[in-house]
Amino acid sequence: MTSTEQLIEWNAQWRLVNGSITCRACQAEQKEAEKGTAFVHAPGCGNACREINPGKALDDIAASFT
Ligand SMILES: [Zn+2]
Questions:
Q1: Rounded to an integer, what distance in angstroms lies between the CA atom of residue 39 and that of residue 48?
Q2: pTM for this one?
Q3: What is the whole-number distance in angstroms between the Cα of residue 54 and the centre of ligand 1?
Q4: 66 CA distance to ligand 1 middle (Å)
Q5: Could you read off the pLDDT of 10-65 as tens digits, one per residue?
Q6: Which of these, 13, 32, 42, 53, could form a disulfide with 26 (CB 3.0-4.6 Å)?
Q7: Cα 55 to ligand 1 centroid, rounded to whole Å
Q8: pLDDT value of residue 40
Q9: For residue 48, how far is its CA from the centre of ligand 1 (angstroms)?
Q10: Residue 48 in contact with residue 27, Cβ under 8 Å?
Q11: Residue 5 Cα to ligand 1 middle (Å)
Q12: Are 28 and 22 in contact (CB under 8 A)?
């Protein structure tokens, strides 16, 4: 998977607005400053079993572009 594809996939699951990462499925929110901790989804969220640290994942994707 290319870096661009990874970024598209990230954007399909998460939204980054005003320094907060939001799960598109359950609307749970995490401040970017808390990205070192696991993301907490709402109960029953279908995305809960996927990426547990979206902020770090985004950093990794960004780093792969350089
Ligand atoms: Zn969720």
A1: 9
A2: 0.85
A3: 11
A4: 29
A5: 999 999 999 999 999 999 999 988 988 899 999 999 888 766 799 999 999 999 99
A6: 42
A7: 14
A8: 94
A9: 5
A10: no
A11: 21
A12: yes
